[in-house]
Description:
Blueprint: H1 2-23, H2 27-40, H3 45-65, H4 85-90, E1 106-109, E2 119-122, H5 124-139, E3 148-153, H6 162-168, E4 170-174, H7 180-192, E5 197-202, H8 203-215, E6 225-231, H9 237-247, E7 251-257, E8 261-267, E9 270-276, E10 281-286, E11 299-306, E12 317-328, E13 331-340, E14 345-346, E15 352-353, H10 358-363, E16 369-376, E17 381-388, H11 395-406, E18 411-416, E19 431-433
Parallel strand pairs: 3-4, 3-5, 5-6, 6-7, 16-19, 17-18
Antiparallel strand pairs: 1-2, 7-8, 8-9, 10-11, 11-12, 12-13, 14-15, 16-17
Helix pairs in contact: 2-5, 8-9
Amino acid sequence: MHILSMAIGSTIRRIGFWTIDTIKGGNIRRHYQEVSEIMQNPFSERAVDKRNRLLEELLDHSIRTVPFYSKYEQVNFTRLPIIGKDLVQNNFDSFKSNKFRTKELCKVSTSGSTGIPFLLFINQDKRSRNIADTLYFFNNVGYNIGDRLYYLRLWNGEQKSELKRLLQNIVKVNISKMTDGFVNDLLNELRRDNSPKCIIAIASSLETLCKYIDRNNLKNLDINIKSIIANSEALNDYTKKSIEKYFNAPIVSRYSNEEQGIIAQQKTDDNKYFHINWASYIVEIFHMDKDIPVKAGEVGRIIVTDLFNYSMPLIRYDTGDIGVMELIDNERVLTCVEGRKMDLIYNTAGDLISSYCVYPVMDKYNHLIKQYQFIQIGKKEYLIKLNIHKEFIYSEKLIKNFKAMLGTNAEISIEYVNEIPELSSGKRKKVMNTNSQIDT
């Protein structure tokens, strides 16, 4: 009976959401239908034509109403410059369309995890598109609006009204201090909640959850979870396998940013690739140091064009992230998404090393380590910060593991700390590069 009442509650919330949208003109539903149609076959003739029309309309609008783009009249899309956060922030008014009044717009701000806090405005239609994108990609993992959703993140300054939160059935979980007591209480709450539910969380918070379960040898969790989405950070193999084992639920990674929205997401039946949101964005991969495209399969900077933000168009925007795009089953997908370009690491010969190479080495010691951070501090100097549960007797072996990857002449030191500090976004960087001598 309790399960039935929860299902009825979810249905009522879902009907309520779409009823409100209909009263307001049905804009979200129209966007949702368009996203669904395009994403069914993003490279069909119909989808490509639609995307081209959206791009033409955006370029026409930008040339006519945005000062920065006014000088590029009649210029082909591929001739437009690559832009970044610093350029936009230093020329803020030049990127604002004169078609909109500020009071009509929604303000979006990022935490500044790259070192550059970022502010921009989005128009109401872009906001509706973001909501539609969110609903579509949630639906892909079995979540429908009105279902119970546990959202693990840093909730400082969150503005969602309690009425809207109740209507959408979102449980806010603030991960600012994930102590053992906090994790225990969270697991107990998830057990008590018998409703089918989904979880979206910063990847490192899921890792903390799994390590707690490992250390305490917990069995038979019996938590009714439909699926889990990891966002904001790379999801390592340890966390992925542990989640699937302990919760008997699929887990996928999402690639998004605060200034644009959901750019790509894995599928529950195929979580090897990130399926790009071709309905709302154009994604390109550019050379690490030159503004030219790379070949399929080569690592490069992720460049994204937002097709719907008309108030402050971000055309060919350098996200600061790096990745690899390949053609798989007639679809261009991201086969790799890594962290910020500014935090790439290099071996002692100066060759680029994927940050993903660090995770398997550290995963061998997961049962002994609460947190870690790998930092390149010089061309051949590296620092490993460890927050440990108890005495760590494998320091020599750990250094040997990393020398095999970085070079036998690598100078590696280990520092024991009580905490790896969080960024203002709630993330904890596992891989960093503080060496100013390397041009990254």
